[in-house]
Each structure stands twice: as C-alpha cells, then as structure tokens.
Amino acid sequence: PPKNTTGTAVMGNWFCDKDSVKNRGLIFGLWTCHQYCGDITAALCTAWVLGIGLPYWWALLIPSLTNLGWGFLTMRLIADPADVGIITDEVRIRMAKLEAARANLKDGETIEDEGPKPISYAAAIRIPMVAQYAVAFGFFKLTNYVLFFWLPYFLGKNFDPVTANLIAACYSVGMMPGGIIVGFVSDLFGGRRASVIGVFMTCLIVFLSIFAASSETLHPVALLVMLCIMGILVGGPNNIITSAVAADLASHPSVRGSNKSLGTVTGLINGTGSITASIGLLAVGPLQETFGWGSVWVFLIGCTVCGTLLMTPKIYEELFPKSDDDGTEMESTNV
Length: 335
Hints:
By secondary structure, the chain is mainly alpha-helical. Helix content is about 75%, strand content about 0%. It contains 15 helices and no strands. The longest helix has 30 residues, at about 220-250. The radius of gyration is 22 Å and the shape is globular. The chain starts with a helix and ends in a 16-residue tail after the last helix. The model is unreliable at about 325-335 (pLDDT under 50).
C-alpha cells in the first residue's frame, strides 16, 4: 500500500497537464509494471536459491537488500514539481483560490500560501464512486491475493517446488501488461475505465469457471497460457483502480486544487481493499480442505461478480453519459 499510495500521489503531481490527463490510463499502466517486476524477480530469485541448494533465508535476504537500495533512491525523489519552481494547473487553481480569499480579507489581515490542505477520509469517501470503487477493489484484490499466494501450493501437488514457482510466475508476467492494456484501451474510449474493467472481469469469470470445472486436469501448456491470460485480466483492473481511476476520482471539482487529495483517495481505496481481501482470505483454507479446489474458484467467481456489480452505476454512466447545458457529452473523467 505505501508504494501505491505515495507513488500514485507523486505521479498525479507530475502528470496533471491536459495531454497527460488524456493519456492517464497508459501513463499509470506503464508505471504500475514496477511492482510485478519485483514479484517476478523475487520468484526467480527463490527458484534460483532453492535450485542451487542455498539456505532458504537467502531468498529473503536478497530482496531485502534490494529494497534497502531502492529506498535510498526513493528518498531523493522530488514529490511535487512546485518544489522546483514548476507551476502546474493544480498549483494555478490553488493560487486562484488564495487570491479570492485575500480579496475578502479585512484591513490588516493577511493570509499566506501554506500549500494545499489534505482532505479527510470522510471528505474522500463523499466523492462520488469512491466508496463503491474501494469495496469493489477489495473483491478484485482478494481474487489477486488468492491466485498469487495459493498458486504455488496448488501447483505443488503436481510439480516440484522450483517448477511450481516458475509456473506461478507466469501469473505475475501476465499482470504486467494488464494495466497497460486496460489503461490504453480506456484512454481510447475517452477514459471510460469502469466499462473496460467490467469487460475484463466478465472474461475473468469465464476463465475461473474453466478452473472450477477442470483445474486439476488441465494440461501444463494450457495451464501456462491460462495463468498468463488471467494475470492480464486480474492485473489490469487492480493496477488501474489504484492509479488512473484514483486520479480520476481525485479530480472531482470538490477537491480540485488540492494535490494531496489523490494520496488520501488512493490510501482509502487501497486500505479498504486490503481489509476486504484479508478477511476473504480466511475462507480459502477451509473451503479447499472441505470441498476441494473447485469451491475456491467458485468463491472467486462470486467475489468477481460482487465487485463488478458495485461498479454498475459507473458503467451505466459511462455508456449512457449525461449531457451538459450546450448538449455536448460530459467528459467521462469528470467523476
């Protein structure tokens, strides 16, 4: 969550001009690939450590040292372009509000620019669709967690640990282009991200249904292909909701001019998603032991359906947009 919340907020600070907003999905989709590079590297590192017979703690030490080095680089990150004298649209809006406030001051009163004030979680959750996206993301994140954490165990029934980890890595490989694809396609359709996410989730339900029916009898090649595709279908929505969608939501007129709103919105979506996913994970073990792996896939189908239904109002709004006073369609990114 820290990497998503902080990183998304910083990205939103820098990529806030009109051209960046039009290509927000692609920009954030490319940016979210970083976390899956780490997942894949860790999986390959684990397979290498186990393969050459090193003690297991080497698989923990190497990523830890890598994170330490990357943390040092992150400390040198410039969070806000205003810190280096770059004036963005968000800063202009904030300055306009400041000038309006100064015009209403009495004689002798002064007001200084102390930067944008952060919004509260209560204010963030009142932004239209934030609550729905937060809970929907929880269901999608639960699906991701189950596949990511339980796949090596599931595959371990038919493969040795090294092979199982390598096959499971295909899921993370698929998640990398997922965010890019969803972001690019949603940009093509004018920022209609909920509709694109809905299509991806519908396709995921089909693949989960196949797993529910024949997960333990699939040919290894078919398993590899399906895991890559499922990685795309899960990774795309998960990546975009916590990045481009959060940036869209934080652009609501009620919080325009406060670049700190993006971090709050992202944190709210991420935190709610993590809580929902953590609770849902508790059901996986008992389901698998009592009813077998088929019941786990059915459980994930139900989670995916619930998350998609929560987004139905936004999907309807994107497919049948309202018109403003001059008869033109409103921008779909104006959430």
